[in-house]
TrEMBL record:
Organism domain of life: Bacteria
Species of provenance: Kocuria sediminis
Protein name: ATP-grasp domain-containing protein
Amino acid sequence: MTGKQRKPRALARQCGAAVYHGIERRLPPIPQRYFAYAVHLRRVPNLRNPRTFNEKISWRMLFDRRDLLAMSCDKIAMKSLAEQRASGLVRVPRVLWSGRDVGELAETSLPDHWVLKPNHRSGLVHFGHGPANIDRLRVETRGWVDEVKWRDGGEWAYSQADPVLLVEELVGAPGSPPLDYKFEVFDGKVQLLIVHLGRFDDLRGYLFDRNFNAVAAQDASEVLRESDIVTRPKNFGRMVEVAERIADGYDYLRVDLYDTGDDVWFGEITPYEGGGTQRFRPRSFDEFLGSYWTLPTL
């Protein structure tokens, strides 16, 4: 495909996304969830008797307002949870600064490499080097604190997080992020692991069970490569223990960890894997994964 051919397609995708989000923002929560589910998965969810993993995520997004979820999308609070529950087993990236005004970083001593992100949102990150360039950061982080993005997707727990920015230490070598291990924990037991490669350019996720046996399923939106080789991490047993300790008491929680060889590092937790619209191949895997999850009685 030539560059001239790609431009109209990219423009069409942008226009389609703008129309989609414009409609989504105007809908009440329950119609909004049906709309998003139908657009992404080409079917209607059963929210009265959820069976699949995506249906159960959607049910949680609409109806579950328990206190234990309230802190699950607050990056600073989840660090404290990891430290309390898995002390001595996992390293938690230190918070070097938090606040609403990046101008304060001019007076903050920063290491050679650091990471800036919002405490109450996902998908936004800045990798910093040495002293902060305040003018650049003001431009890049404009709207990061003020915008209330949780309403677009209905992920309520983000609304409970403190709307501030934070700077934390970098995990792994600069320019070479460690593999991202995402543990799917149901009722305190790891049932699935997703290993992410190419996080910042060509995302690919490989699925394994709790014994690190490959699972014949994938995210349908990703293109896997035969050349990719994913081996059992050195600290896999400890990572499983860490994930289960952190997720103890939750009916479902995803726990993200890194293995740098010498240490296991905490990444984050999320109660809303894939926003309830994750496309699996084969499609039956959605129901298989959902069978591990017993929803609470509210």
